[in-house]
Amino acid sequence: MWENILSALPLLFSPPVLLSMAVGTTLGVFIGALPGLSATMGIAVLIPLTFTMDPLVALGMMAGIYNGAMYGGAIPAILLRIPGTPAGIATVFDGHPMAKKGQGLEAMKIALTSSAIGGSVSALALLLLSPPLAAMALKFGPVEVFWLAVFGLAAIAVLLSDVPVKGLVSACLGLLIGMVGIDSMTGNERFTFNVMELTGGINILVLLTGLYAIPPALTLAQEASLIKKGSGKDKLGSNRKTVAWTRLVPTWCRASVIGVIVGIIPGTGGNIAAMLSWNETRRAAKDKSRFGKGAPEGVAAAECANNADNAASLIPALTLGIPGSTVSAVILGGLLVHGMLPGPELFTRSAPVTYGFILAMLVTSIMLFIIGRLGARLFINVMYMPPLMLAPIIIALTTVGVFAINNSIFDVWLMLLLGLVGWGMERLQIPLAPAVLAVILGPIAESNLRRAMLIGGHDTGILFSSTIAMVMVGAIVLTILSPLIRKVIATLTRQQKRQSTDTTPRMADGHNET
Amino acid sequence: MKNSLSKILLVFGTTTLIASPALADYPERPVEMIVAYSAGGGTDIAARTLVSYLEEHLGADITVVNRPGAGGEVGFTELASAKPDGYTIGFINTPNVITIPIQRDTRYEMEDFTPVASVIDDPAGFNVHPDSQFKTLEDLIEYAKAHPGDISYGTTGVGSDDHLAALALERQAGVQMTHVPFPGSSDVRKALMGQHIDLGIFNMGEASRDAAAGRIRTLAQGAEERWEKAPDVPTLKEQGYDLVIGSNRGIAVPAGVPDEIINELSQAIAEAMQEEEFQAAADKQSLPLYYQNPQDYQKTLNTTQERFQALWDESPWAEQ
Questions:
Q1: Which of A21, A25, A305, B316 could bridge across to A273 with cysteines, CB 3.0–4.6 Å?
Q2: What percent of chain A is helix, strand and coil (3-state, nearest 5)?
Q3: Hey, are the CB atoms on B73 and A182 less than 8 Å from each other?
């Protein structure tokens, strides 16, 4: 293996490849930062352009876009409360509160460093541990993926607002939206109202952009007429703090492992990795109440995990030809175009290019750190922009981005409609995150449960038939019961004291109702 | 400046003069090619590969426009309702283009298209895990006869060519198996390699690589004759089933395009497909090339439609 790595190095560090990686990373950051555009689309559009390129030049650029976009999504998430990509949802939770407290630059630095670390760990896992991890990916059948989705759904409970009913309304709305389209198990149309464009379901990017990007734009426009000039500057810089980097190390370790594991499981993506990682970090923390209100660890957990998902999702793609996510599926297409057939042969016959590509995932993670560092000061200026200008810019950019997904004007109208729904939800203080996560996780849980039941001859026993499944069931039960248990212990031991560190009782209530 | 302007005017003048009376000058402006699937997908990459060679032989620029949605229905509808002047062409994929109007009310019918050329024909493949007890299709059928419903088979979805292949086989062999639909062929392959299902049905183009590497075993292919890349895999016909099934991708135009234009397009596609470079590129993507002229392609589509309609009338594969 080492000789393969050594043989790939001169190829990788040739000027054209270095340049394409830098261009790709920069491009990726912008693609990720623009709501509606995603790494998947960026790479898909790029592939036909790379037909005539040298393979490693093309693949280096793809690696750059992939890593860049995963971090790029954090920029609007932190500054504007708009996740640029689905994987940026969890970054909003703590990133935007930090920006509001005047720590936007710090939040971006944390996001950047965490992304670079997550991306590097992931690339190293791809480089060193591919075969054993690929074998693990195959163990995840419908049963195991079903439980993983349920695990993710259980984590939603944490996001329920102070009024659990509102959070549940949001989650149920998400589950309903997730059902729109042709039922893949029977061919039935569900909630399509005879609209052709709805038969394929509602695209997650359209939903995400509508729910997350439009309401802040509307709110900005509203505030623009109310707020005095120049008050936007107060938000920024006034409250600079040095980041306690060493305190983030445990978070990075945890997030990297979660990101890599979720990455190799086919059918899951960076959004689930970031969500689980944020939730686990919160669970492990002593003072949970800081989370969701601008905890640096929250940003680090989400961003480290969604980049740790990147190269890991390529492990089953490269070794078995089975993509772990939509982005890796597109990258797989790019590899095929350049005559690289996935499988063990990839690591022998086309070793220089394959190892070159894997190393490019590592190098672009490091490049991202430098490019992002330079760009952070530029991006932060968004906060200085008068809301009167910012609001129309956001709406124009999202409209273009959403149209570009499927070249469909229907999607644009749908996004604007969902934007109004999102705005209404915000006015009613119904949290948005449960809805979006339910849209992502609901269909995964549903289809895999039904697949498992078909395979198992409609005997529920199959759901508990593997070790992985049992471990995950245990983890789910623990997640659901832990607030309750903690609450009971707290009441028993400190009945007299003021319960300042008590885990919020709302969660226990939420679980009872779930 | 003045000179070039007058040149432009001259060219503009002459072309518009000639263009209106005769179609002999087709194509005189860029052609739009509708792909009913997302950028970066299998059909898209195949289309874009073909386009770079087709442009040369047709003598016009071709722009690929992705119109994904509703399993291809969005793009097919757009193609069917385009102006029939030969400047909008598109890929149609079987079985979707045929089965969608059978399954539900659509804004297009098969009669709204005129086929131009078949480009790719990828037969269905019946695959098992290398450790499977089934060494031949006969083993599998025998087991299925003795244990109705025990064998689980994965396909790329309800109404996919894989699903229809299995239904037809079940009917002809008089067996019953359990269908487990997946979103895409890579999901079926993963479930098969992880031994979560007994039988994985997906196209030969997707199976050949894994079969060559020993990750799966292909028991049968749905081709008319054995595909050159899988000479050891018997066809369903050889094993006594009257069944030729797969996924066909070809070029069509909206009905009403003049015959001369259709023939010119078809000729250009045939020539592009003859190019060695194109064949090498198709080989890299494991695309089984299969050219058919407009008449033969029309016949193929007609028979396929009749067969699927009969299958649907007898036992609908999707709930209505």
A1: A305
A2: 75, 0, 20
A3: no
- What residues form DSSP beta bridges with B34? B65, B90
User: What residues in B contact A141, CB-CB < 8 Å?
Assistant: 191, 194, 196
Asked if A287 contacts A101 with a C-beta cutoff of 8 angstroms, the reply is no
Closest by CA to A408, choosing from B77, B160, B83, B90, is B77
Measured distance between the N- and C-terminal CA atoms of chain B, rounded to whole angstroms:
65
Nearest to A122 by CA among A318, A255, A279, A248: A255
Number of H helices, E strands in chain B: 11, 10
pLDDT in tens, B72-112: 898 999 999 999 999 999 999 999 999 999 988 888 999 99
Give which of A342, A303, A382, A283 is closest to A116, Cα–Cα.
Answer: A303
Query: Do residues B204 and B232 lie in contact, with contact meaning Cβ atoms separated by under 8 Å?
Result: no
Residue of B37, B81, B196 to mutate, testing the A interface (most A Cβ within 10 Å of its Cβ): B196
List the 247-266 stretch of B: residues with Cβ below 8 A of A.
none
Look up residue B91 and give its amino acid. Answer: F
* Cα–Cα distance, B241 to B169 (Å, whole number): 7
pLDDT at residue A167, rounded to an integer: 85
Burial status of residue A464 (CB atoms within 10 A of its CB: 0-12, 13-18, 19 or more):
exposed
Distance from C-alpha of B134 to C-alpha of B109, rounded to nearest angstrom: 41
Contact A47 B40 (CB under 8 A): yes
pLDDT at B128: 97
**Residue A229: what pLDDT?**
46
Q: What is the mean pLDDT of chain A?
A: 85
Average pLDDT over residues A493-503: 60
| CB–CB contacts below 8 A, A to B | 144
Calpha distance A72→A50 (Å, rounded): 23
| Residue B153 and residue B197 in contact, taking contact as beta carbons nearer than 8 Å | yes
Cβ distance B38 to B66 under 8 Å? yes
Q: Which of A321, A337, A407 sits opposite B186 (nearest CB)?
A: A321
State whether A321 and B67 contact (CB < 8 Å): no
Domains of chain B: 23-122+246-314 (3.40.190.150), 123-221 (3.40.190.10)
Interface test with B, best of A43, A51, A328, A451 (most B CBs within 10 A): A451
User: Distance between CA B151 and CA B177 in Å, rounded?
Assistant: 5
pTM reported for the whole predicted model = 0.81
Least Cα distance to B99 among B154, B43, B156, B160 occurs for: B160
Which of A44, A51, A334 has its CB closest to that of B38?
A: A44
Q: Radius of gyration (Cα) for chain B, nearest Å?
A: 22
Least Cα separation, residue A144 to chain B (angstroms): 11
Q: Which residues contact A133 (CB under 8 A, 6 or more apart)?
A: A125, A260, A264, A312, A315
Summarize pLDDT for B212-252 with one digit per residue, the tens: 888 899 999 999 899 988 999 999 999 999 999 999 999 99
**Residue from the list A43, A329, A454 with its beta carbon closest to the beta carbon of B186:** A329
Supply the pLDDT for residue A513: 37
Q: At what angle do helices A89-100 and A270-284 cross, to 10 degrees?
A: 60
Interval B44-54: pLDDT, tens: 888 988 998 99
Q: How far is A127 from A4, CA to CA, in rounded Å? A: 11
Residues of chain A contacting B106 with CB distance shorter than 8 Å: 196
Cβ distance A187 to B103 less than 8 Å, yes or no, reads: yes
